Structures
1.
Amino acid sequence: MAGKDNRKEVIRKLKGLGEDIALSIESDKVPKMKVPLRSFSNIQFDKQSNLLRMGDKTSLRNFMNVAHTKKFMQTMLIASKCEELVDRDKTASIRELYYQLKHTVAGTKENTFEGQDESDPLIVDLETMLSVLREELHLKADDKGTIIGNIVIEDSGDFIDCSKLGRSGLAVPSIVEQYKFHEVKADYCLVIETGAMFDRLVEEKYPQKNNCIMVSTKGQAARGCRRLLNRINKELKMPVIMFTDGDPWGYYIYSVVKAGSMALAHESERLGTPKSRFVGMTVTDVEEFGLEKVTEELKDVDKKRISELLQYPWFQTKEWRHELKLMEEKGVRIEQQALASKSLEFVAEEYLPEKIEKGELLP
Amino acid sequence: MPEKEEEEIKERSADDLFKDFKAVSITEFFRKNKAHLGYSGKLRSLTTVVHELVTNSLDACEEAGILPDIDVVVKQVGEEHYSFMCRDNGPGIPEKHIGGVFGQMLAGTKFHRNVQLRGQQGIGVAGVTLFAQMTTGKPVRILTSTGNGKVNDVKLLVDVTRNSADIMENNVINQKWRGTEIHGELKGVSFNLGERSPYEYIRRTAIANPHAKVTFVDPEGRKSVFDRTSKEIPRPPKEMKPHPKGMDTDDLLNRAKRSANRSIAGFLETEFSRISKAKVDEIQSKINFDLKKNPRKITWPEAEEITKAFVQVDFMAPPVEGLRPIGEKQIENAVLKILKPEFSSVLTRSPTVYGGGVPFQIEVAIAFGGNAGRLATGEESEANRVEVMRFANRTPLLFDAGACAIMQAVSSVEWKRYDVKDFESTPITIFVNLVSMYVPYTSAGKQSVSAEEEIVKEIRMALMDVGRKFQRYHSRMRREIEREARMNALLKYSAELAAAVAKLTGRDEKKLAKTLHILITKKLKLEYKAEMEGAEASEEEAPASLKGESEE
């Protein structure tokens, strides 16, 4: 966890933001704040590191512009609350923060925040604006994701053996900075999109039989999960292999784990795992394993998503272009669990071991 | 039935046939022309009665130079059976003329004069007597005095055989009073408060006659007082000669044939307005026959040559002494008092001519908000909608709107251009008064102005002008509303912002909130000022940018 000096620095930054605004009010100037732009237009793909990076475009949030007024006020409410959290050395979930700040605006029937969807993006604004991490603001998201396998993790003095947690594994918290890794005996880390597939592989004793760690993202990977994979890959030099549904949404989940996300491009260095690779599912698998009968037709939104992915610079490798075009051409998607059409054991005993052994992995 | 009638047909001598002719003619004339004279429909008949009485009173007062004070009362007596009373403070009627005014048809003094008066056909108030007599069989009662201490209390009927008054009673009362009061009863009529009712007629009369005070008591006993907003009595109208511009061949030919002049030159010079000796010479230079010719011997081709020359020669604009516009100030005051609008604009255009060289003038007003617009009831919600008040020489036109030049002009304007998004449902009153010695009515009902090109164009121009003024007002108002909404939004969040910043920086919350409050009001004021200056600058350019439309 961040030390005391770090806390002081964060408090200094938060107070600095308040001070700027107070000073402009006192000197008869319209209060403004510069917020780095977090849209596609300000995202660059760094081919050297294979990571998404944030550009230096900013937008000016002006209190006198009625389109900005409420957001401006909300941002400062969050800043003020974070300063209090850091000062008291307490950590709140982003949902707790929302409830702490939600109240009726005096003289109106309006709330300071109408939903968590109003406060969440402003937290990210504050992170990027002040170049601080979410955990440095003493905020955390809900736990999401699970880890299981031959790894002992030390968390706040407790030693957790992830191979002795039955079938459920260890829930991955949103902050994993405090984790220390011990006694790692695994050849690679398999990351699985769906909880159901994770459960199947646990039941088949896949980690024991294949000497690997398994992590389930349960859909789009949360920060904690991504940070954990980043650390496993970097600190333990362990290969990360991803296993998702064969559809554009699964591929995008992979790309976020690998290169980072657009929304958190400022943290790609800490959250991305550029060396990760992809095992499946792919449309090529459909032919390879004779799964034609268990595919599903692409919907219009899927097709639209494919053409979007084809635009992203981080999908411009020939393997990925081939897969995406093939999917577009065949007009079908394939789920992880469709492998059960062969047999329940098929995925654990044939599909994954074969592909991984042969190194049939996408970059 | 027809067969039976056939059986009864016998040859009748000419003497026998003509015995009843006169008696029949007046009532027949009335019956046949009932619709033209305004006595058709239950509501319309009652409105026409009120119209004839009020018009008569207003004309009498004006000609005598008296500020009119008119009281009208309508009471319900039975089903479709009403009584009426109209009293004015006019000059009164000398005893020997009482019968002529109230009991003789086509005896008006306004007939065949190039004068701008309200009534023109000379049926007038005697028509009321006849209508009352025909529907109830009862006479009308008139009380009148010229202020000489004697009041005549008269009951009379129209003697249809002689087309003259049949005075049944004439009592002389000694009383110091001046004015005329008429009482009567009508059957087969009905009353409401709608757009074509006597009430609406009086309300509009009050707007167009700001020098008159009119009081109306309706059958429910509700009393409406429309007080005068001007003490200026309109100047008496003057008789006018026709203007050469627009005179057509047929009209010229007819006038020439009736002329007493010895030469066409003399006829042109004396019987037209704005034709001088020099102009006659100019006309002579453009035609191929001698203007010394006797006007009664003029031929069609010659008359045509003269009208062609009229087009080529420049004449001074027609004299305007004959026209009696209400005046911008007077309309403005009346509109403000009666409609209490949020915004109004009035325009009196310069006189011009239509058709046969007839001078006319257009007055328009637009009023928005307040009591402007027509209250539309019976729908989902009560709201004021657009209302067009048509007038000819200050007289409200309530019927036959469809074919009217005024309605044509109103609907030819693209109101959207003037910020009136949904014209029909905007609380706007549009007032149009056509001033002329000869109003070209579409029919003898005198409720609709014929769509002469020049008249429609003039009204349209005038409406576009006030429309632009409304637009300016409206956009200013909209900016005002936006500004207020913005101010509220900013102030609403400013306390929250101040609290958060104060807590973060250890400042005094109240002090910071106050400073922020001052900052917001100051910045908005500055912005507003800059905006207004910008808006004014663009307003000055507006006429130029709209020129295309005005000049079409």
2.
Amino acid sequence: MLRKIALWIDERLYVSKLYASTAGHSVPANAESWFYVFGSGTLLCFIIQVVTGTCLAFVYTPSATEAYTSLEYLNYQQSLGWLLRAIHNWGSTFMVGIMILHLTQVFLFGAFKYPREMTWISGVVLLLCTLGMAFTGQVLRFDQDAYWGLGIGAAMMGRVPVLGPNLVHLMLAGPIIAGETLSRFFTLHVFIIPGTIIALVSLHLRLVLTKGINEYPVPGKRVEKETYAEEYESLIKKEGVPFFPKAISKDLVFSGLVILGILGCALYFGPEGPHGVPDPTQINTVPKPDFFFLWLYAVLALLPDYLETILILTVPVIAIGFLFALPFISGTGEKSARRRPVAVLSVIVIFLALGTFNYLGTYAPWSPKMGAWSGEATPFKYVKGRSPLELRGALVLQSKQCRNCHSLDGSGGLRGPALDGVATRLTSDQLVRQVIQGGGNMPAYGKNLSPAEVDAIVAFMQTLHEPNDSPARDTTAPENSGDKGKETATVRR
Amino acid sequence: MVVKEPDVVVKESELKSPVVTQGELVQLVRKRPSRRAFLFRLGAALNVVAASLMGIPVIGFVFSSFRSKGPGESWIGLGALDSFPVGETRLATYRNPFTRPWDGPTADIPCWVRRIEGEKFQVFAINCTHLGCPVRWFQESHLFMCPCHGGAFYEDGSHASGPPPRGLYEYQYKVERGQLQVKGGILPTLSEPL
């Protein structure tokens, strides 16, 4: 009876035929590797995002007036809303992370080469879509970071020559960041980009079926356009295994771990934000992007300003263009990473660079520490035994907010050099000049300090050296500055 | 009763496969201009025209920013002159002149007002000229500092240090009936400063 029902269903829906041409397709036995699990892992994350995102959309209100409140409602009132928000947030983190692993693996295994150019190209568009989802998703968490993140996006668009104002207007859906901006990003995040992703994933998977999964590369075995298709076919015939139920087992294990990982992180860390209210008049904020874009935030701080506009406008175009062109630049030849040193080195350099920039982005040494001048006391050891003039200087250093950029004994801003030991680097004349005229990325304080204040602050800074280090001397007039330094040192002892 | 002749007579040899490929279809159509071929062409042409007609408003809607720049800027009151002491720089806020009912707090725009003397002012946009973050005024060091990438500006808005490519954006202002007014309404960027 059951068999009859099954047969009836199969006859109507062609389930077994569907199986044979999709999940049951043969893959090379050597593709049954732990390295081949990241593609399905990324897809799994996407499915989790669609499901949790749909749930969140039941409650979330894409209106500039209500979005923040609806996020708070999700966090605190809606039953399990906090967990769904946390899963959605961690799902995005996992998705970007696993997708990058997938990209790296595909690159290192030469899977972009003939005849899988279109698989790679559709993958690059999927990468861009996923990053687009990450950015638009961050905007939907409509808080201060989202507001100023949009401002940063608009400022970058505004650097485009000629079309700049139109592009800013197009991005913001108006002259300022406001209600329609959020609606626009909601549409992108919920309709346009996910729709594109679904379409492209279909293409991507279809290509995996028609062109076959990349066989595990063997060093010395080169891809040649004339022979590859034949070789692949005979490989499948000789040692092909059906993807389901044979080759899928490692994917299954990995998928399970991914789900547990997302759930575990969501339960342990909870939802992200929303942070401050998206009210631009609340200006005491330090906007920062989510981790996917921290490296960009760091790069933008560190680029020399004369290069900035050019690089902002050209590097993304060149980088994305290069990704698209890759299968045509290097479409044949060695696949194995063991025979592709340039590929391996590029991966290492790119990962090191992104990792370093992301790390720098976490503590942003280029930003002044806005509260340091009033929040971080002058270290005791730097006031002990100082003369009244020097103490007055310590006070000026504090009240003129020098500490926002300069640290003392490890506390304070990192924008400028630490002032511990500054007396060993600069003579009193140099200190006066630096304070009054600025330079080397320091503002000039000449108009803002009285001569007496300059005297005091320089006197204080001249005491900033280790007891047994001698202060810097003016070689043209060694006695003057040298004596001054010695005096201070004596006073301290 | 009149039995219609089939439009296209297909020879036995042309019926090898039940599925007619596109090439064969084109050939058949070319061979004998028929009512079916005419209808196919008419249908295709009709769809191209109709889709274009429908596409125009859709594209025009999405890319409306390229057609009209919207309402532009207008004069907004920032408050009585007395609320800005001479020699000081104060934060002022205004409601963006063009708002939609669902804009919420996002349409409240802050700016920095520096009263130099008498009716001489400088009104700066809050946005850093580097990448638009909100600059903060520090009365003690007479500097505007940006929290994002470390840009700093002097009290007159000129560039002091860091990555910003120019000084702060400055609003046009006027004093009318004891009120300070500025011309605002857009988010200033490098290509469209205030």
